[in-house]
Amino acid sequence: QKKRTRRKDSVPNLSFENIGGQQRSKEELKEALDFLIHRTKLHDYGIRPIKGILLSGPPGTGKTLMAKAAAHYTDSVFVTTSGSEFVEMYVGVGAQRIRELFQEARTGAKRSKKNSAIIFIDEIDVIGGRREGSQHREYDQTLNQLLTEMDGITTDQDIQVLVIAATNRKDMLDFALLRPGRFDRHISVDLPDKKARSMILHLHTKNKPLAEGVEIEQLATETFGFSGAQLESLTNEAAIYAMRDKSDVIRQEHLSQAIDKVMMGEKTDREATQ
Ligand code: ATP
């Protein structure tokens, strides 16, 4: 049974304020999104619309969050899929799914009375990996269909569609995807620095019973190299330690234990894949 990503044609309830750090990426993204918001103006000037934005960066840095926040910011319906959904599909089925995805985006927007739709494709590298020589290409038709659909986007359509794709293998992508008029806006979403880690930790402990005197700044220093997803996991693990201890509050020691747990977890994962 193939895993099917659930698609929802509604506007996500997640804004850029819910994402810690990533200041520069957020600004770049908003700037590109303003084109979507002011598309009538673009049409008047004969400027071609932005059709695709590529978010690249390590796992767990908030690319999916950024795409959702983009839909919230532009009041667009959000339709999502992942490259992994296309693995081992029969020839032609992938292309058909891409067609459906665009249809779904347009009908979803119409149904919700919105002017725009954002299609989010996570792990775009699965279908958009570089074509080498004449080697058999499993995803050719799927990728071609995506390019065809994107080429068909114009500013005078009732519903403006924007495709946001995410990858942590930008160097592997086919050049055809990166050409002007396709994914020609690239935004990198990197690992958080200390200030950003502190912001993310604040966001994820906001609704948790932290003991007085817990030093978030100290934690931010100790979590060098952690992604947003790992920081979220750390706060969750710390809460579990506190609960096991029958402590009403999460103390610094629970957080320290959780740092070790998250770091060990990563190590075990790495060993398992070696
Ligand atoms: P992947 O490449 O693995 O798909 P991603 O970059 O899309 O990862 P997300 O799915 O957006 O990462 O993040 C996973 C979870 O990590 C989020 O649901 C959130 O809890 C947390 N997270 C990641 N980055 C941030 C951030 N900058 N601010 C707040 N939470 C974050």
UniProtKB/TrEMBL annotation:
Biological process (GO) annotations held by this record are:
proteolysis
Name what cofactor the protein needs.
Answer: Zn(2+)
- The AAA+ ATPase domain is annotated at 49-193
GO MF term (any one)? metal ion binding
Q: Which UniProt keywords apply?
A: ATP-binding, Coiled coil, Hydrolase, Membrane, Metal-binding, Metalloprotease, Nucleotide-binding, Protease, Transmembrane, Transmembrane helix, Zinc
Q: Where is this region: Disordered?
A: 1-17
Q: Give the family, as the similarity comment puts it.
A: Belongs to the AAA ATPase family.
Name this protein carries in UniProt? ATP-dependent metalloprotease FtsH
Q: Which organism is it from?
A: Marininema mesophilum
